[in-house]
Amino acid sequence: MKTLAIFGGEKTVPDGFIKTWPPLTQADRDAVLSVFDSNVLHGIFAPQCKALQQEFADFIGVKHCLVVNGGTAALHMALASLGIGPGDEVILPAFTYWSSAAIVLHQNAIPVFVDIDKDTFSLDPDLLEAAITPRTKAILPVHIHGMPADLERIIPIAKKHGIPVVGDCCQAHGASINGKYVGSMETTAGFSCNRSKNLSGGEGGLFVTNSEDAYQFASWMRDFREVPINAESTPHTLAALGWNYRPQEFVTALIRSQFKRLPEYNARRYEMAHYMTDKLANIPGLKGPFEPANRKPVYFSYIVDFRPQELGLDIPAPKFKAAMIKILRAEGIPCGRHWLQPVADEACPIHGDLPASQRLRQRLPVELRPLQRFRQLQSVAISCHAGIHRQPLLSVQPLSAERSRPRGSLRAGLRKSHLPAGEDSGSGEFVVI
After folding, report:
1. Strand pairing of 176-177 and 180-181?
2. Can you list the positions of beta strands (E) in 171-308?
3. Strands 136-139 and 89-93, how do they pair?
4. DSSP code of 191?
5. Shortest CA distance to 299 belongs to which of 88, 115, 120, 63?
6. pLDDT digits over 42-91, tens only?
7. Which helix (H) or strand (E) holds 431?
8. pLDDT tens readout for residues 250-288
9. How many other CB atoms are found less than 10 A from the CB of residue 18?
10. CB 391: neighbour CB atoms within 10 A?
11. 92-122, pLDDT tens digit by residue?
C-alpha cells in the first residue's frame, strides 16, 4: 500500500489536474459571440431566449418554459404563480439549500419543515400528511443532490388534499422517475443554471409548467406586469408589481450550447457514481448513496456515508470525517465545509428534532465532474481505504467552531415543524471538488 501524502508520500492528484466547471468549448465561445452579431442583448422576445424556452420545454415534456436570470427567481415564480401569499403555509424538506425557504418568505408565507428520508435525503412522504393543515397551500419537494424526490407518493397525497406541488429541480436537470423527467410531473417547477449545476450558463434559471394560469402569472412576474388603469390608458401603463427576472442573451446562449451536451454529461456522472459505489463497497467504514430502483439521479453531488462503527472505532462520526478531510487535502483533493446543518436550524433554532436531516452531517458530498478522469475518483477511494486504518490521524480535531457557524439566517416566524424525535449523530460536511 502506498505511503499517504500526509506521511510524506507523493500526492495522488497532481497540481492543476482538477479542472473548473463547466467545461468551455469553442462551440460555447461561438454561441456567446453570436449574440454580438445579432445585436440583441436581452429581452423576453430575444432569439436565444425564445429558442431555449422551446428546447427545454420539449426536453422536459411540458407546455411552457420561461428563461429567467437565476434559479431562485425561477423557484419564486413557481411558487408565486400559484397564488401563495401572506399567512399561507408551504411544506418543504428541512434539508435543502436555504433559497428553497427564502422564496416562501418572499411571499410572506410560512415555511413548514418536514424531515427527510434517511436514504435519499428528500422530503419523507411518511411525514407529509401530518404536516398538512387548512393553511397549507403548496408542497415543495426538493430533488436534492440530483436525486428525484418520491413524487410517486408525494403527488397523490397532494391531490388528495387539493394542494399544488412545486418542484425544486435546481440540482436535477434530466433526473427522472420511471422515465419521466422531474419538472414535468409537478404543478410548477424551477431549475438553476448556476455555475456549478449540471446545466450551467454561469447563472440563469428555467421556470416550467403545464398550467396556463401559472404560466401567465409567471410571465408577468418575469417582466413588469403591465395593465391599463382605465380604458383610455395605453398597454404600457404600469399598475401592478413585477420582479424584473428577465434574462440576458449572452448567458442564455451559453446555456443553449451547454444544453446540447447535457445528456452526455449526465451519463458520465452516472457512470462515475456507480464506479465510486463499487469501489467503496469494498472499504469498511464508508458507504456510497442509495439509488431507488424507479429513480434515476443525475448526481449533482455524490454522497458518502461515514461509518466508524464498521471499523470497530468508538469515535464520533465528526472526528472520523475530520481525519478524512486531512487525508484528502494532503492527497491534493480540495475539501471544504458544505451545508453545515438543516436549513430549519438556520431559520429557527426551536423547531423540533430532525434525526434524518442531522445525520447528513456525517456524510460527504463529492462533486463529480464528467470530464475528470477516473484516476481522481480512484484516489478518493484509495486515500480513504489507507487512511481509515491509520490510528494517529484519528486524533485530529474537527474544524473549529468558528468555521461551523451558519453563514446567515432566515428571519421569519415559523410554525412548528412536524418532526419525529431522534438522535443527533454528528456535525460537519465537506466537499471534494
Report:
1. antiparallel
2. 176-177, 180-181, 188-192, 205-209, 286-287, 295-296, 302-306
3. parallel
4. E
5. 120
6. 989 999 999 999 999 999 999 999 999 999 999 999 999 999 999 999 99
7. strand 430-432
8. 999 999 999 999 999 999 999 989 988 998 888 888 888
9. 17
10. 9
11. 998 888 899 999 999 999 999 998 998 999 9
